[in-house]
Amino acid sequence: MKKKRAPAGRPETPLGPGTIRLNRYLALNGIASRRRADEMITAGQVMVDDEIVTELGRKVDPARQRVDVDGVVLRPEGESKRYYLLNKPTGVLCTSDPRENRPRAVDLISDKRKGRIYTVGRLDEDTSGLLLLTNDGDFAYRLSHPRYGIRKLYCVVVAGRITEEDVAKLREGVRLPEFRATFESVRMQKRSDTRSTVLVTLKEGRNREIRRVFAKLGYPVRDLRRVEYGSLTERGLKVGHWRPLMQREVDELLALAREENAGPVPRRRRKGSKSAKRFASRTRSGGQAGRRP
Q1: For residue 261, which of 13, 33, 40, 41 sits 20 to 30 Å off, Cα-Cα?
Q2: 214, 156 contact by CB (below 8 A)
Q3: Quick one: residue 274, left, alpha or beta (phi over 0 = left, psi -120 to 50 = alpha)?
């Protein structure tokens, strides 16, 4: 089908009450951050009802309009919502880019009915553990945005014997160049002269935050695994395996993510600082970019 450009000044299709800005709709579907989505729109990579849209600020009605990006149709109306829990191995990437040749988390979900899914937040390549995947943009937004405060528990294995003094520092918070890193909880699990295992809880994770905190204290991380995600645990789910979420589990996660149950956004940035600008950019993009402990 030949792509057509929407004529300038053409009146938009009457939209229903569920309208949303096109860049936000792309972000909620895991395509890109809002800023990157704007670039894709102006570059002519996005089509609405089979016509190229290049105007910023355009609104769409997902229930009535067809949106595709570079030929990939976003979740069509009537397509069932899918929710999966994966125990991600190390060496697997949290990306939906079809050009990526390395193993991707989305490829480990072997359900033939999955359609186009994407990860909720990210775990870096060297981190294993629980990862959610879905085609539900609102679900992904609520579970990945820091304002909703979903707790994640990590098992951290480091080189060396952690002292009580450093355990106290972990509980008080550790200053990194861009911000002060704080954990919701810190619990020693085991300790020897050569290695220590610590359980830490995060609500909002920044890029390689856990690794950087322990490295700052002189304990290189040897293994990092997310073992709990909200009400979900790794129990019964082997590394590399996945399972669909039950509706009860989806409801429990959304209940945990309700704004009234979440505390204030951590005060880690000053107005006008570089970290504040990065935080604002990430918040506008639905919180998906760069959230890798």
Answers
A1: 33
A2: yes
A3: alpha
CATH number, span 4-73: 3.10.290.10
Longest C-alpha distance within the chain, in Å? 72
CA distances from 184 to 36, 173, 268, 269, 276 (A): 32, 10, 14, 18, 21
Domain residue ranges in the chain: 4-73, 83-148+233-261, 152-229
Question: Catalytic pick from 49, 50, 61, 124?
Answer: 124
Level-2 CATH architecture, domain 152-229? 2-Layer Sandwich (3.30)
CATH 3.40.50.300 is right for the domain spanning 83-148+233-261: no
Instruction: Dump pLDDT digits (tens) for 186-229.
Output: 999 999 999 999 999 998 777 789 999 999 999 999 999 999 99
φ/ψ of residue 196, rounded to 5:
-135, 145
Residue with tokens 């020693």: 188
**DSSP assignment letter at 147:** G
Cα radius of gyration (the chain) = 21
- Residues 102-117 have pLDDT tens digits of 999 999 999 988 888 8
Number of Cβ atoms within 10 Å of the Cβ of 11: 6
Q: Are the C-beta atoms of 224 and 128 separated by less than 8 Å?
A: yes
Catalytic site residue 107? no
